Amino acid sequence: MRKSGLALVELLGAVIIFGLVLSLSAMILSTITKANARIVEQSQANTEMTLLTSLLDDTYQDFGATNYIPCVGITNCIILINAFEYVVDLENETINLVVHNPELELNISLLNNRLYIDNELITINHFTLATDSTLTYEIIGSELILNLDLTFVGELNTYTYHYEQTLTLETIPT
Questions:
Q1: Domain boundaries, the chain
Q2: For 121-155, how does the pLDDT look when each residue is reduced to its tens digit (9 = 90+)?
Q3: Which residues have a Cβ under 8 Å from the Cβ of 89 and sit 6 or more positions away?
Q4: Region class of 8: left (phi > 0), else alpha (psi between -120 and 50), else beta
Q5: Which residues touch 108 (CB under 8 Å, ≥6 apart)?
Q6: d(CA 159, CA 56)
Q7: Given this model, what pLDDT does residue 11 score?
Q8: Model's pTM, two decimal places?
Q9: DSSP annotation of 155
């Protein structure tokens, strides 16, 4: 005699198959979520470095450094100097040499895993700087090459960036 409905074995098989499908779906969803979180963090790191690059470029251009002095006893530090600049005098239609006395200074440093520009802490949202972040410079001929190697530490990963700026060293014209 045959009864309609599901046998216990069929029901058990259906539950197992449903459990496997549900488990596989959860694993796929988890993988997608983790990948998305990594992509978001990478995007945030890129955005922060782009903003920082823009800030450094603007600061460098606005300051108009003509020379430098090393920070005494401190690594990961440089003091840029603006000894003079040319100013346009629209009234007299001339370009005048203005010598700064004392010279203007702009301090850039990496201290205690923090970046400072002109002794002001630069905030890097969502990340901290790793201890292997460095600020170095080298002199090649009459050029100073400033290198900033930053490692951002996020919740999921670390991101390394390099910033380089070249300064032509100048003396006050006579």
A1: 9-62+109-168
A2: 999 999 999 999 999 999 999 999 999 999 999 99
A3: 95, 96
A4: alpha
A5: 77, 78, 79, 80, 116, 117, 118, 135, 146
A6: 19
A7: 86
A8: 0.81
A9: S
